[in-house]
Design brief:
- With 189 residues, this protein is an alpha+beta fold.
- The chain folds into two domains: 120 residues, Immunoglobulins (Immunoglobulin-like, Sandwich), CATH 2.60.40.10; 30 residues.
- The protein is built from three helices and ten strands.
- The strands form two sheets. A six-stranded mixed beta sheet has the order 2-10-9-4-5-6.
- The N and C termini lie far apart (106 Å).
Length: 189
């Protein structure tokens, strides 16, 4: 009887340890992008090569402005595209080839400033479950294109003014240093 108790305790402890060792990580904790561009967000998770994808659950979402928006969902190894929030409709793709390697790569295209926020990916397999999050900040596109800036300031007057100002400041400082040096000369020299 004592032997059976020990075996059961060993089995319970080992199953607890297996669940605790399942890890989901982000490859980058923070991303910066400009609107209308694309970005790839990536997570990794521990996986066994002999594992069955019947027990694969993935839920990726955006937590922003006091709401949660669905990006991508897999239930029992099957994608659920209709769960995707309309804000991301047609703009989120997953790289299915790397799932077996324990990688989730979400490609978000045509970024919008409202895509900024905390991206959470929750993964569950027969080995356990865990989640990880990363932050994305999408900034507005520049007001002027580089060609427009050149047209507005064709001769670089702003830079010339800066160089003149810096040169004059340096000259004034040198004159002040020279005058201070002359006034501190010992009298008999």
């Amino acid at each position: 009887m004592k032997m059976i108790s020990r075996i059961l305790l060993l089995l319970i402890l080992s199953s607890c340890l297996c669940a605790a060792t399942f890890v989901v990580n982000v490859t980058q904790s923070s991303y910066q992008a400009e609107e209308n561009h694309s970005i790839t967000l990536e997570w990794t998770f521990t996986t066994k090569t002999q594992g069955s994808w019947r027990e694969l659950f993935i839920y990726c979402s955006l937590l922003a402005s006091h709401k949660e928006l669905d990006l991508y969902q897999v239930h029992e190894g099957v994608e659920i595209p209709e769960s995707q929030d309309e804000q991301f409709s047609g703009r989120v793709q997953i790289d299915k080839d790397v799932l077996r390697e324990g990688r989730i790569r979400l490609h978000v295209s045509r970024l919008r400033t409202e895509d900024s926020g905390l991206y959470l990916c929750d993964v569950e397999t027969e080995d356990g479950s865990n989640d990880a999050a990363c932050r994305l900040n999408v900034t507005a596109a520049a007001d002027f294109s580089p060609t427009q800036r050149t047209t507005l300031d064709p001769e670089g007057r702003g830079r010339i003014g800066l160089h003149v100002f810096l040169g004059l400041t340096a000259a004034v400082l040198m004159v002040k240093l020279f005058l201070n040096f002359c006034s501190t000369e010992p009298e008999g020299s």
